[in-house]
Specification:
Helices cover 47% and strands 14% of the residues. It is an alpha/beta fold. The structure holds nicotinamide-adenine-dinucleotide. The site of nicotinamide-adenine-dinucleotide has 27 residues, from helix 1 and helix 4.
Length: 283
C-alpha cells in the first residue's frame, strides 16, 4: 500500500491544521469542504502560520510557496476519488460521518484508506457504513495539528493489520509519534482528559471557583499551557458537548455526564474561540 496522494474532508479548525501537516511533509493534498468560506479561511490560516515561521527564520520563504503549492481545494467530494488516503474532519456527529464515509466509499478507488479524526465516536459504526471496513480506521490528530506530536490510530475489530502497518509507517513520515488504541469511546487521550475538562465546568457551575481561579491554578500548579476552560474554548464547546454525550452514552459513568452549563452555553451559541465567545471573549 503506497500512500502518496492525500485528501482531507472538512476544512474547519482541525482540517486546516491537518492539511498543513500533510503539505509540510511533502504530500500533494486535495482539501474538500462543502462551504467555500471555510476553504478560504482554512487556507488563509495555513498561509498565516507559515508566514509567521518565515518571520521567525524557521522556514525559508521559498519553502512557504512550495508548501502552499501542494494544496488544491474543491467543494466536490468527487475530487477525492484518486487519493490514497483521505482524512475526514467534519463535525463530531456520527450520522454525518457515516453518511460522508458511505459517500467516499462509493466515490474512491478500492485501495483508498479512509481515516476519521473523530475525538471519540465509534469508528466501528463508521466502518460498517462502508464496503471497506478493513481499510477504515481512526486517525486522530490533536489540536493544533501542526504542533501536537501525537498521532493516535484507532483500530476496530475490522481494520486489517496491513492497513494499520501502512498508516503507522506513513504517520512517522509526518514527523508524529504514533500510538494505536482500540475502538472504545474516547480512545486513550479523550477518555482520560474529558473528566478533567468537565470537572472544571462543574466547579465553575457550583461556584467553587471563578473561571480565572480555575485556569490560573491549573496552569501554575500542573504546568499546563492552558487552563481547562481555555482548552474547552479552543476545542469548541459544541465538540466538547458531543464528546461528553458520546462517552456518557457508552459508559453511563457520571464523570462523563455533560454539565448543564455546557449545554446552556452551546444552546446560546457560545461555541468558544471559533465564534469569538465561550468562557472567554476573543477579538
Ligand atoms: N476541535 C478540536 O480541538 C479537536 C481535536 C481533535 C479532534 N477533533 C475532531 O475533529 C473533527 C472536526 O472538528 P473541528 O473542530 O475541526 O470542527 P469544525 O466545525 O471547525 O469544522 C468542520 C468542517 O467540516 C465541514 N463540513 C461539514 N459537513 C461536511 C460535509 N458533509 N462535507 C464536507 N465538509 C463538511 C464544515 O463546513 C467545517 O468547515 C471532529 O470529529 C472533532 O471531534 C477536534
Amino acid at each position: 500500500m503506497e500512500i502518496k496522494k492525500l485528501g482531507v474532508l472538512g476544512c474547519g479548525q482541525m482540517g486546516s491544521g491537518i492539511i498543513q501537516v500533510f503539505a509540510q511533509a511533502g504530500y500533494e493534498v486535495m482539501a474538500v469542504d462543502s462551504i467555500q468560506e471555510m476553504l478560504d479561511k482554512g487556507l488563509k490560516g495555513i498561509e498565516k502560520r507559515l508566514a509567521s515561521r518565515v518571520e521567525k527564520g524557521k522556514l525559508p520563504p521559498i519553502e512557504k510557496d512550495t508548501i502552499m503549492g501542494r494544496i488544491k481545494t474543491s467543494r466536490k467530494m468527487e475530487d477525492l476519488a484518486d487519493c490514497d488516503l483521505i482524512e475526514e474532519a467534519v463535525p463530531e456527529d456520527l450520522e454525518l460521518k457515516k453518511k460522508a464515509f458511505a459517500q467516499l466509499d462509493r466515490i474512491c478507488k478500492k485501495e483508498t484508506i479512509l481515516g476519521s479524526n473523530t475525538s471519540g465516536l465509534s469508528v466501528t459504526d463508521m466502518a460498517a457504513a462502508t464496503k471497506r471496513p478493513d481499510r477504515l480506521l481512526g486517525i486522530h490528530f490533536h489540536n493544533p495539528a501542526p504542533v501536537m506530536q501525537l498521532l493516535e490510530l484507532v483500530k476496530t475489530i475490522m481494520t486489517s493489520q496491513e492497513t494499520i502497518d501502512a498508516v503507522k509507517q506513513w504517520g512517522t513520515t509526518l514527523g508524529k509519534t504514533v500510538v494505536v488504541a482500540p475502538d472504545v469511546g474516547g480512545f486513550i487521550v479523550t477518555r482520560l482528559f474529558t473528566p478533567f475538562l468537565l470537572g472544571a465546568v462543574r466547579m465553575l457551575e457550583a461556584g467553587i471557583a471563578t473561571r480565572d481561579e480555575i485556569d490560573t491554578s491549573m496552569k501554575l500548579a500542573v504546568n499546563h499551557p492552558m487552563g481547562p476552560l481555555e482548552v474547552i474554548d479552543f476545542i469548541g464547546l459544541d465538540t466538547e458537548l458531543s464528546i461528553a454525550e458520546t462517552l456518557y452514552e457508552e459508559t453511563k459513568d457520571p464523570k462523563y455526564a455533560p454539565p448543564l452549563l455546557l449545554k446552556k452555553m452551546v444552546t446560546a451559541g457560545w461555541l468558544g474561540r471559533k465564534i469569538g465567545k465561550g468562557f472567554y471573549e476573543y477579538k
